[in-house]
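Private note to self, pasted from the team thread so I don't lose it. Backbone tokens:
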């Protein structure tokens, strides 16, 4: 949005605007909070929200009831007379934008369907109490957001404890992200009232939860107890604090064994899971869990779970699934490979366990915990399981604003996913060609006049699979392979992860970090890929020999996107070689004569010979033989 404003400003100031593709990107000015090099500045701050939650689930009515203390610390320089609180269960209430608009579900390639309407289910959260210091606070609910008036403004540097009580019916179907299968499987996210992010860029961020746009969350610590029927097994964010109450001696002994195991140890076997599911166990059991420095907390429970576990580098890898989920026999190996691959490539996984649960949710991520369906095709099963774990890096570690910038979350994740799929399926046709999907998707989705820039908010995107997932993955692949080179690119991405781990980066922080670490001006690249729908059309017009040892190759840039050019020179004797020209070739305009030393007569020239670029017209990429 600020691109448009900046263009207007320039137009008012001078009669001729700079239209060069290499002109500076009008980023917001660097501050003491966000530095010009892209790192958090010396006065970087973010709010802290820590939660103590006591919840119990009545499986007869599927009613979840909880009390909660929110410890909120105001690290901002501003006094806050009120706070905004997310009440996301209200997506199922009649007051939500989602209910009122009743939009058709989001369909993704591969058949995944995300229906956020609840398919007619009407629910929503009831706030029984929202108090501070024994005083009930005045509140106004706007669908999925709630404004709460404070008794006195919360001064900079001070903290407040909110005392909250609530209950809601768990939807029979997941609204895309959470829900239940009868009373046999519960997958619970977006369940407790929590603070909206207050930051230095937007102040409060109470954009409604509609469905397509995900979350922007504060970091904090969690202390959670969950009371459930005694026969249910729980998988959750956090570490179990009362193992002897909730796990049998045999399970604890197997878990011990799993901690360093490269292959799965069956903590609950298929036979045991089937027997557990058939047994009715009286009474309840309370699970006590804690988690440090996370931006959310989710959990799942069922009497039917099988449980496999292994270990990598001190991290326990857990897979929970129902006995009917046959493809999940391999899931633990997939999960372990994934956590190791992402850790070694982008930065070490920071929490004690990585857990995934099979169930009704098509794919959703929470810190340390993901929800994934059983999928028959092995490659697709790996993809979804691995993708949800990729979110442990983006946005669980690097806590970007998903509600505005899905390309920094889904997009960065999809990019790293291709590396993981290439690794797991290395040497197979799928593993060696999977990344080509990105160019195929470009052909289908990058339709002039319909395509929207990546910077578009997710709820305004008509083709979210392209704009939030595939195009950003293609963008980073092009940046890595065609512009920066693998080593420089990976170094810059790792630095971005380290700088912004457990923090809130904005797009400018990412752009500045990549420029700062690589030493390259990339404003042109981000303008093309993020702020516009520029199209690439590189062409070779002709070539001619000069003297006995050189060739002039006449090149043109006919599209609105600039990129470096890779040329294949073909010689009369049937041999060829490849030359790469840096993007600076286009500084003086859209024509360039490459003066190349050539040992033999050139009879043919091919631009982008490996067809790695989204060139919209390949018909002009070839001259001669
Ligand atoms: Zn995702």
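Design output:
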């Amino acid at each position: 949005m600020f691109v448009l404003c900046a263009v207007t400003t320039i137009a008012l100031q001078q009669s001729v605007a700079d239209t060069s593709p290499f002109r500076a990107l009008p980023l917001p000015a660097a501050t003491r909070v966000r530095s010009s090099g892209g790192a958090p500045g010396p006065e970087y701050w973010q709010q802290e929200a820590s939660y103590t939650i006591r919840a119990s689930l009545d499986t007869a009515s599927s009613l979840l009831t909880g009390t909660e203390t929110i410890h909120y610390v105001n690290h901002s320089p501003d006094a806050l007379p009120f706070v905004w609180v997310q009440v996301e269960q209200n997506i199922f209430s009649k007051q939500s934008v989602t209910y009122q608009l009743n939009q058709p579900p989001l369909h993704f390639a591969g058949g995944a369907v995300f229906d956020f309407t609840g398919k007619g289910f009407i629910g929503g959260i009831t706030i029984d109490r929202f108090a501070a210091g024994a005083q009930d606070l005045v509140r106004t609910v706007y669908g999925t957001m709630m404004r709460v008036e404070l008794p006195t403004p919360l001064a900079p540097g001070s903290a407040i404890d909110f005392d909250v009580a609530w209950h809601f019916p768990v939807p029979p179907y997941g609204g895309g992200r959470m829900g239940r299968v009868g009373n046999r499987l519960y997958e619970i996210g977006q369940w407790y009232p929590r603070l909206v992010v207050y930051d230095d860029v937007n102040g409060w961020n109470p954009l409604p939860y509609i469905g397509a746009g995900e979350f922007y969350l504060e970091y904090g610590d969690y202390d959670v107890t969950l009371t459930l029927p005694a026969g249910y097994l729980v998988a959750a964010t956090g570490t179990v604090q009362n193992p002897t109450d909730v796990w049998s001696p045999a399970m604890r002994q197997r878990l011990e064994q799993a901690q360093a195991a490269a292959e799965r140890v069956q903590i609950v076997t298929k036979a045991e899971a089937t027997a557990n599911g058939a047994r009715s166990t009286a009474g309840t059991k309370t699970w006590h869990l804690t988690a440090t420095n996370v931006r959310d907390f989710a959990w799942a429970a069922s009497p039917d779970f099988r449980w496999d576990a292994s270990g990598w580098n001190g991290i326990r890898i857990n897979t929970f699934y129902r006995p009917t989920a046959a493809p999940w026999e391999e899931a633990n190996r997939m999960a372990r490979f994934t956590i190791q691959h992402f850790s070694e490539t982008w930065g070490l996984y920071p929490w004690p366990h990585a857990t995934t649960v099979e169930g009704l949710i098509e794919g959703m991520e929470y810190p340390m915990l993901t929800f994934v369906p059983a999928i028959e095709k092995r490659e697709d099963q790996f993809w979804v399981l691995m993708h949800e774990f990729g979110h442990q890096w983006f946005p669980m570690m690097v806590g970007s604003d998903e509600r505005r910038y899905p390309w920094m979350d889904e997009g960065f994740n999809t990019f790293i996913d291709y590396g993981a799929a290439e690794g797991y399926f290395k040497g197979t046709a799928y593993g060696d060609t999977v990344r080509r999907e990105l160019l195929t998707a470009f052909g289908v989705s990058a339709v002039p006049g319909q395509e929207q820039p990546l910077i578009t908010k997710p709820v305004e995107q008509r083709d979210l699979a392209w704009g939030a997932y595939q195009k950003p993955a293609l963008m980073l692949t092009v940046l890595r392979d065609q512009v920066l080179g693998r080593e420089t690119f990976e170094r810059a991405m790792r630095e971005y992860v380290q700088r912004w781990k457990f923090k809130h980066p904005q797009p400018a922080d990412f752009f500045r970090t990549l420029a700062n670490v690589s030493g390259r001006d990339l404003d042109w690249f981000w303008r093309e890929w993020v702020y516009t729908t520029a199209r690439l059309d590189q062409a070779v017009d002709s070539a001619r020999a000069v003297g006995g040892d050189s060739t002039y190759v006449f090149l043109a840039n006919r599209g609105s996107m600039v990129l470096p050019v890779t040329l294949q020179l073909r010689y009369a004797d049937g041999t060829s070689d490849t030359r790469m020209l840096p993007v600076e070739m286009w500084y003086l305009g859209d024509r360039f004569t490459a003066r190349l030393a050539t040992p033999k007569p050139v009879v043919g020239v091919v631009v982008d010979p490996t067809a790695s670029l989204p060139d919209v017209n390949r018909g002009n990429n070839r001259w001669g033989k």
